[in-house]
């Protein structure tokens, strides 16, 4: 009996060792059942959701509304078709007594109602054009391209090149505005209208404009009719009597050469000339051609 009990114990130990070895070899783990999560009542769940939504929506609603408005505005701007404006200022020059800034603004107000401006190109000889008009065009934020007036049809070739580039970059329903009455643009305008399906708007002088050029455009306008109600340009007349400006509160007993060099750097741009510098009192007298130059300093 004792031997049988020991044999049974040994056999049971061997079976346990075999099972443990088998589990180690196979990598199987004993199954463990996790207890189910506690159930929440509907009232508690609803109260939690409503409290969370109220706290989050109160701060996010305004920001989300503002961002949606901005996105909507940006989408509307992107949906507007592009419009290129090209001005041959030698053919349609700025009328006498008018301001170039007002002319550019009127063109934008008339033709950019249903379009967005892609580019505004003005081609001219900068050296021969009036300096006041060139400065006003710079102030109007247009692309001013200089071409030499010595070469024949240089401005027309530059504008035709710009028209072709615009047609390649912007498919229909884009549009172009050509401010010129030159017959050399007839072939390009015809291709843009009938082959590229781009809307062509022609602005021209009433005199000496070919009917073949007008037929190539979807619509045409008179240059002088667009600008007839613009205000007259008022020229500011300044007196040419010289003005003397006295500077005070300068450093006392300062190096004369350094002080003079510094004053020249400040007043030379406005046409001032140093008459006298008193280093002991810290004053200086500057002479200008007129009061406007002295006031600018």
Describe this structure in words.
By secondary structure, the protein is of the alpha/beta class. Among the domains are: 78-226, Rossmann fold; 243-296, 2-Layer Sandwich (Alpha-Beta Plaits), CATH 3.30.70. It has 10 helices and 9 strands. The protein has helices at residues 2-26, 42-79, 100-111, 131-139, 154-169, 186-194, 211-215, 223-226, 256-267, 291-296; strands spanning 82-88, 116-124, 143-146, 175-179, 199-204, 219-222, 243-247, 273-278, 283-288. The strands form 2 sheets. A 6-stranded parallel beta sheet has the order 3-2-1-4-5-6, sandwiched between helices. Strands 7-9-8 form a 3-stranded antiparallel beta sheet. Helix 3 links the parallel strand 1 and strand 2. Residues 1-25 and 43-52 have low confidence and may be disordered. InterPro entries: Marf1, Nucleotide-bd_a/b_plait_sf, NYN.
What are the key terms here?
297 residues, alpha/beta, Alpha-Beta Plaits, six-stranded parallel beta sheet, three-stranded antiparallel beta sheet, 10 helices, Nucleotide-bd_a/b_plait_sf, CCR4-NOT complex binding, Marf1
